Amino acid sequence: MGAERFAAWFEQGRKNLIGEFETLAVAIALKLWSKLVAPSQVMINIDDEGATFALIRGYSDSFAISLICQMVAQQLDDYYVLPWYSRVPSASNLSDFPSRKIRHQLYQIQTAFPKGKLHLSSTKA
Question: How far apart are CA 52 and CA 23, in angstroms?
Fold first, then answer.
């Protein structure tokens, strides 16, 4: 998937897409697992406050997040899933450790972390 697909997400000079991708992760998870948990109540933990509140409200100032919220709402409605959204603090979020290049006792020790920065403009599909 090329970076150009996300170009429209960089509205009004935005520099990062954390909220969009955090919200998209919920949409993808529901797309994959809604049939397995339907009908039920599901707790969804997110580590981005903006994404959490957008999903609770069903919309955002970000057009992309609002579209993703619509996809999430449709999945929930189609499979009779009642969500409870909660923000997970960074200290409790195991994925935060490697993303910040911090070692954690539950992860295998790696000798090196990838160097350099990922630039969307140079990412190939």
Answer: 8
Do 44 and 83 form a contact (C-beta atoms < 8 A)? Answer: yes
**Structure token digits, residue 59:** 């919309």
Query: pLDDT of 98-123, one tens digit each?
Result: 666 777 666 666 555 556 655 544 44
86 Cβ neighbours under 8 A, 6+ residues apart: 43, 44, 45, 46, 52
Q: How far is it, in rounded angstroms, from Cα 16 to Cα 32?
A: 26
The C-alpha atoms of residue 74 and residue 70 are separated, in whole angstroms, by 6
Distances (CA, A) of 77 to 37, 41, 110, 116: 13, 12, 42, 42
**Stated pTM of the model:** 0.70
CA dihedral 63, 50, 23, 47 (to 10 degrees): 170
Read off the amino acid at residue 21: F
Which residues, 6 or more positions from 47, have their beta carbon under 8 angstroms from its beta carbon? 22, 87, 88, 89, 90, 93, 95, 96
The domain spans of the chain are: 16-110
- Report whether 26 contacts 72 (CB < 8 A): yes
